[in-house]
From TrEMBL, chain B:
Record keywords, A-Z: ATP-binding, DNA replication, DNA-binding, Nucleotide-binding, Nucleus
Function: Component of the origin recognition complex (ORC) that binds origins of replication.
Gene3D superfamilies per record: P-loop containing nucleotide triphosphate hydrolases
Source species taxonomy: Eukaryota, Metazoa, Chordata, Craniata, Vertebrata
Family note: Belongs to the ORC4 family.
Location within or outside the cell: Nucleus
InterPro entries (UniProt xref): AAA+_ATPase, AAA_16, ORC4, ORC4_C, P-loop_NTPase
Molecular function GO terms recorded: ATP binding; DNA replication origin binding
Example GO biological process: DNA replication initiation
Database matches in SUPFAM superfamilies: P-loop containing nucleoside triphosphate hydrolases
Assembly mode: Component of ORC, a complex composed of at least 6 subunits: ORC1, ORC2, ORC3, ORC4, ORC5 and ORC6. ORC is regulated in a cell-cycle dependent manner. It is sequentially assembled at the exit from anaphase of mitosis and disassembled as cells enter S phase. Interacts with DBF4. Interacts with POLQ.
Species of provenance: Eleginops maclovinus
Stretch forming the signal peptide: none
Protein name: Origin recognition complex subunit 4
């Protein structure tokens, strides 16, 4: 759904009427209402104060919701501003906070926004259309409606917690709307259409919508149907005379139906109250489309209509109707609309509390089927919404009229036949397998088609050969569905797990390591406790020795977040100097600050160059962490670009930590360029913290335009000094007495001299506790000797021991190499040359001389453990040999024997 | 003999021998684990403790097992795992992932294999779904969700660890070590490698995340221990064979074999050449295959013969199969090498050298046409006795392409001595100093 390009419509915004007041100081005029019209369409949407509106946002499928408080513009009418009260959608509430709700949020739920840090003044040009908002009591259930245009308010949200809505306040907010807004279940009685929507979509959504209305009153229904049919006769002939031919009508309607569906799919958000219907219908240039739609409606309608249609196509009155077509279409259409409205009002007034689908009449039954379209649309967007149309299809047929009974019995017969054929093959799958949205959609279209055909077949005995939707599988699966649902309760959750055999990517796989069956043991003694605390992974309460750096980063990020601006910072330092840990600590503190309301809330996102397979994956990860969307790298880049460059009200600051920056290097450096360019945008509110090892990375690998955007805010982490290391260990141990003072000092001095890597120091101390535990002298304290052992283990190279352990021939070979090197005065020799020396040495030592093969094997063995550096072995005796150890080490190791 | 057989209802000798061979082959080829690892007790204890802490306490660790080939690294690890899994606590909890640098040649394959072995949820049947990037994210997410006390510890064994260090950016190693150094699901990363300089292969940030624990497996048995090991390897344990009498006989014969002077000498030579288990096993396998019904024990001669086969020079052997002409060309090349101190030569030079020899002899026995010589030359090249200096063959004419001799002089001389019915003049020509 997200990938297609929307039709761009140009909207024109105009003040309606004269300003109601004029502010002399600010030179602004306040207005009562605003007109929105779409270029080329005569319709006008009026926005008034107190109305709820949708405002263009980052997410095209979920525009912002707000209520108009005030409309004003500047003197010369150039700028139009709207002061709004915001509502937050479920998707705008951070997932972590959504838990506070304590229940599953309703997809159409919105929250009265009381948080700070949002601009409540927006450009009028960002208004999309009005929307209906309804307030519900805290305990009241959400109305069970497929209508996705009504939003519900229950709670308020102040970016920390949910509270009950202050009813007085919100009611006053909502009251103007509630009066005009119908109860949610009957929303369909005012089929929405907006000026901004392409016209084709509008009628399509109207027809099914009003007919979707269930009513228990048969009488009214019948009257409505008759009236409707009568009107349709007129409209059809008026709209499209060639429809006199039954077959072409049939195929045409189907085509138009699919067209409308697709058009509607393209514009899921385009709806306004149904008053505009009249206007739309009467616009002459849209006539053909309307006619098509009406045909569709006609076709999809009940058997009675089919009969009428049949009569229409074959009987003499045709001529009369064709005559009608010559009259201006408006005249024909108007009464129909009026009649429709009349029916609707009747329906509305009828006791509508009883919505039991069982009670529907045969005609409504069909009508209800068409209801699938809006329902499906909703399904497409709201994933876990259970499909209501299943319930509808489940309604048993209770036909009153004979013809209808005949038809239905024939259909049933046909379907049963198909069922029997395919039940065995498809049946099992159908139970477990919930088709994807697309399939659902297409199958529902098929659904209509099948019924239509069945109706035609039975009534007219017209054989319609349908090459294009003969997919027997889809048809049977459809019919299956119906027979199934007629016998079972209609609620089915589409989220059912797939059976393991299905060859599909499991989308819902949750990444997790299985839980352990037995609990982990807790440390038993002091040394184990110390070891636990000294593990690098344990997060200390505070980070000692990095106070200055902490302060720098903290104030940098804090100032940017408070100001709502953006910026970059480059942090460098050798591994293990606490760069990432310090940034995390800063973020923890800042999050805490937002919790106590000291600074505005912000997003914190972290990516790591090492944790992605390709630099461009950075976009994907940022987008995923920011919005939860999944996209390809290119698409994600485009979305992020848009997000960071478009002005959006109520935007939180984003703090992005890019670890291991050097790995994001690409030849064109566009990833780095974008990362550093976004913060400079006016509306981005993005703070980028980058971490890498080398201090001069910007100068070394970045081209000028990238380095320039990175800026000069740099921070360098020096390696820890021995005092700092000692302090780190002491603070980690936190009064657990496990080390002698001298031992700690030795470890920290040694590490400080080598690298200043805190990880190394912690590892050494941890190893020392292990050695201490197994040493004979059980003092319970780690001493100097233990640390010394640990140091030796970690830092001494194994070459000398390894040379001592190799076999006699291998040792001889090493000596031969040194002898040959000395002879040549070079540090390199071919195997052939060394081999001569080797054989001479063998004779001196009184050993049997080795063959060339054996000599090569000896050489390869030494090469495998990298005591020697060798050329590829295919060179045989010609391969060159070098020592990987110093000659002195070799001699020392050999002499010690 | 026959009396005894009747009393104990012995198995026939053939049956016994095939059983003995089966038992010993299992021991030598299938790398059956010894009950106690010899010579590496300290390392065994260290590694066992370490892995136990991961399995039981949920402490993350990383360690490298380093040692030359055939020193018993994998044997040590397998022994440790066997002992570890004997504990119920560990057995119930530990998840194992085994990777080999020779099989998982890049991170994508390695990730798929890891996901598969962990049975994560994006695995259906034997297939792992999702792209490389998705897999990586999925696995990291999975590991991140775990914590020390609640999730099952995972043991990652990376065989041929040094090859993983050659993967692009060392992404896999970085992530594994990063998990082991952060508060995520407990993991133990065990790398097995034969390279002593393996730490130098790691990038600095990967290196910093590695705990620098290295367990060196450097077996250094004395010759006595070596001899004992040969004896225990070949001896039968009581209960191995249903026929006790035959087992005793066998063990006695092995004992006498090991005490034999010539056998000891041969084994000493092997010991001098290499101390590792594998070459030893190779020798013993050769001995074992010579046992038959007619000869139901390993005799010293068998071992000497096997030893001779182990030390045989492959290229000298190949020289025996050459024709006289080819041998002559080799000799000519040898002389050229002596003359020009190892400078490369071409076919024309070799042919000239050969012609000089023919002129001196004045008999036309070896007078071959140029194409014949050319063919022989090409055959030598196919056998890789000679190889071109530069690999580009197309540029120069074949006669003038520069070549090098891949044989040592000693090999040529040795082969001439053993060459069946080698003409004396050729021999003399080879011996003579310069042509």
């Amino acid at each position: 759904m997200k990938y297609f390009t929307r039709l761009r419509v140009r909207r024109v915004y105009k003040w309606r009427g004269e300003p109601i007041s004029f502010n002399r100081k600010l030179k602004t005029c306040e207005y009562a209402s605003l007109d929105i019209s779409v270029e080329g369409l005569p319709r006008v949407t009026v926005i008034e104060t107190g109305q709820h509106i949708l405002i263009e946002g980052e997410d095209e499928d979920n525009p912002y919701v707000a209520k108009v408080i005030r409309l004003y513009g500047d003197e010369n009418g150039k700028q139009k501003k709207v002061v709004v009260q915001w509502f937050a959608r479920v998707s705008e509430v951070p997932l972590s906070k959504l838990k506070l709700l304590g229940r599953e949020p309703h997809p159409q739920e919105i929250f009265y926004y009381q948080g700070r840090s949002c601009d409540d003044e927006v450009n009028a040009e960002s208004i999309l259309r009005p929307v209906k908002v309804q307030r519900l009591d805290g305990a009241a259930p959400f109305p069970d409606s497929e209508d996705q245009d009504t939003l519900y308010v229950k709670l308020s949200w102040d970016s920390k917690s949910f509270k009950g809505v202050d009813s007085a306040q919100v009611d006053s907010d909502l009251s103007p709307d509630c009066s005009s807004c119908p109860p949610p279940y009957s929303r369909s009685s005012f089929p929405p259409s907006t000026p901004c929507s392409p016209p084709a979509a509008t009628p399509a959504s109207q027809g099914p919508a009003w007919r979707a209305l269930p009513t228990p009153d048969l009488d009214i229904m019948r009257r409505a149907a008759i009236g409707e049919v009568r009107n349709y006769q007129a409209t059809m002939s008026a709209g499209k005379p060639r429809l006199a031919e039954a077959e072409s009508m049939h195929s045409a309607t189907k085509r138009s139906a699919s067209k409308c569906l697709s058009a509607k799919r393209r514009n899921p958000s385009a709806r306004t109250p149904g008053i505009r219907k009249k206007l739309e219908l009467s616009s002459p240039e849209k006539r053909s489309v309307i006619a098509e739609d009406l045909n569709q409606l006609l076709d999809e309608d009940s058997e009675s209509e089919l009969m009428l249609a049949q009569r229409l196509s074959s009987s003499p009155p045709l001529a009369v109707m064709l005559k009608h077509s010559l009259t201006p279409p408006r005249k024909n259409l108007k009464p129909s609309v009026l009649l429709n409205k009349m029916c609707l009002s009747e329906i509305n007034s009828s006791p509508s509390s009883d919505h039991s689908t069982r009670a529907t009449t045969p005609s409504t039954k069909r009508q209800l089927q068409t209801l699938k379209e809006p329902a499906l649309e909703m399904l497409a967007e709201v994933d876990n919404e259970s499909s209501p149309f299943v319930a509808v299809t489940a309604t048993p047929r209770s036909s009153k009229r004979k013809s209808a009974q005949l038809v239905s019995s024939r259909i049933r017969k046909q379907l049963n036949l198909l069922d029997k054929q395919d039940l065995n093959s498809d049946g099992e799958d159908e139970d477990e397998f919930v088709p994807s949205k697309k399939e659902l959609q297409s199958s529902s279209e098929d659904d209509d088609d099948v019924e239509k055909e069945a109706g035609l077949d039975s009534d007219e005995e017209v054989v319609v050969k349908k090459g294009r939707h003969t997919a027997a599988g889809s048809r049977t699966s459809r019919s299956k569905q119906r027979t199934h649902t007629s016998t079972r309760t209609p609620r089915r959750t589409p989220n059912k797990k797939f059976t393991p055999g299905t060859p599909r990517t499991p989308h819902h796989a949750t990444p997790s390591i299985p839980c352990r069956l037995r609990p982990a043991q807790q440390p038993a003694n002091v040394l184990e406790e110390a070891r636990l605390r000294l593990h690098v992974s344990s997060v200390p309460e505070s980070l000692p020795c990095r106070e200055q750096e902490f302060q720098d980063i903290y104030s940098f990020v804090e100032s940017k977040v408070v100001d709502g601006t953006g910026g970059c910072m480059y942090i460098s330092g050798v591994p293990g100097t606490g760069k990432t840990a310090t940034v995390h600590e800063v973020m923890r503190c800042l999050q805490h600050a937002t919790d106590v309301d000291e600074i505005p809330p912000f997003h914190f996102i972290e990516i790591n160059g090492m944790k992605m397979t390709d630099p461009h994956q950075a976009y994907v990860q940022i987008l995923q962490k920011l919005t939860g969307q999944k996209a390809t790298a290119d698409h994600a880049a485009a979305l992020l670009e848009k997000r960071f460059s478009n002005p959006a009200p109520r935007k939180q600051s984003t703090v992005l930590l890019v670890d291991e920056l050097d790995l994001l290097w690409t030849r064109k450096q566009n990833v780095m360029y974008n990362l550093f360019d976004w913060p400079t945008r006016r509306n981005a509110r993005l703070v980028v913290l980058t971490i890498a090892n080398t201090m001069d990375l910007p100068e070394r690998i970045m081209i000028n335009r990238v380095a320039s955007r990175l800026g000069l805010t740099r921070l360098s982490f020096q390696p820890y000094s021995f005092k700092q290391l000692q302090q780190i260990i002491t603070s980690r141990l936190n009064k657990v007495k496990a080390f002698e003072e001298d031992a700690l000092q030795l470890a920290s001095r040694k590490v400080a001299a080598l690298s200043g890597d805190a990880r190394r120091c912690l590892d050494i101390c941890r190893r020392a506790t292990e050695i201490c535990e197994h040493s004979a002298a059980d003092t319970g304290l780690v001493g100097m000797s233990d640390v010394m052992d640990a140091l030796n283990e970690m830092f001494s190279s194994a070459y000398i021991t390894a040379i001592k352990c190799v076999s006699v021939q291998e040792q001889l070979f090493l000596r031969a190499i040194i002898a040959e090197f000395r002879r040549l005065g070079l540090e390199e020799a071919t195997f052939q040359q060394v081999f001569v020396q080797h054989q001479a040495l063998c004779r001196v030592e009184g050993l049997q001389p080795v063959s060339v093969s054996e000599g090569l094997a000896v050489c390869q063995r030494l090469g495998a453990c990298r005591l020697l550096l060798l050329e590829p072995s295919r060179l045989g005796v010609l391969q060159r040999v070098r020592l990987n150890v110093s000659q002195d080490d070799v001699l020392y190791a050999l002499k010690a024997d | 003999m026959s009396k005894r057989k009747a009393r104990d209802a012995h198995l026939p000798v053939g049956e016994c021998i095939s059983q003995v061979q089966e038992i010993l082959r299992k021991r030598l080829c299938n790398q059956q684990l010894p009950d106690r690892p010899e010579g590496v007790e300290a390392q065994h204890k260290h590694l066992l403790e370490l892995l136990k802490r991961t399995a039981v306490h949920g402490e993350s660790n990383s360690v490298l097992i380093v040692g030359p080939r055939g020193a018993g690294k994998t044997m040590l690890l397998k022994c440790v795992l066997r002992d570890l899994l004997m504990e119920k606590e560990a057995q119930k909890n530990l998840l194992q992932v085994h990777l080999n640098g020779l099989l998982q040649t890049d991170d994508r394959i390695a990730l798929q294999e890891m996901t598969r072995q962990l049975h994560l949820e994006n695995v259906v049947g034997d297939k792992v779904f999702g792209s490389f990037a998705e897999n990586l994210n999925f696995l990291l997410e999975a590991l991140k969700k775990g914590d020390r006390s609640s999730s099952r510890p995972v043991l990652f064994v990376l065989d041929e660890f040094d090859l993983f260090a050659h993967h692009k950016n060392q992404t896999l190693l970085y992530n594994l070590f990063d998990v082991s150094q952060s508060a995520q699901a407990p993991v133990a990363v065990v790398g097995v490698t034969c390279r002593l300089d393996v730490l130098e292969l790691l990038e600095k940030r990967v290196k910093s995340r590695f705990s620098h624990r290295q367990i060196h497996v450097l077996s250094n048995p004395t010759f006595r221990q070596y001899l004992e090991r040969v004896q225990t390897q070949l001896s039968l344990q009581p209960g191995d064979l249903p026929d006790d009498k035959f087992a005793q006989h066998w063990n006695v014969s092995i004992k006498t074999l090991c005490e034999d002077k010539s056998v000891e000498e041969a084994l000493q030579r092997h010991y001098n050449s290499s101390k590792d288990f594998r070459s030893n096993h190779m020798l013993l396998m050769l001995c074992l295959s010579r046992v038959s019904v007619a000869k139901p024990a390993i005799k010293p001669a068998d071992l000497l013969e096997a030893s001779r086969m182990c030390f045989i020079d492959a290229e000298a052997n190949m020289l025996h199969g050459l024709s006289i002409l080819e041998l002559c060309l080799i000799i000519a090349m040898k002389h050229l090498n002596d003359l020009y101190e190892g400078e490369p030569f071409n076919l024309q030079m070799v042919h000239n050298e050969f012609k000089k020899f023919l002129q001196r002899k004045s008999n036309s026995m070896y007078n071959f046409e140029q194409p014949v010589i050319m063919k022989a030359f090409e055959h030598l090249q196919q056998l890789e006795m000679i190889r071109p200096v530069d690999s580009s063959t197309a540029k120069t004419q074949r006669e003038y392409q520069l070549m090098r001799l891949m044989l040592d002089h000693t090999q040529v001389m040795e082969a001439l001595q053993k060459y069946p019915q080698c003409p004396t003049d050729v021999k003399q020509w080879a011996m003579s100093a310069f042509g």
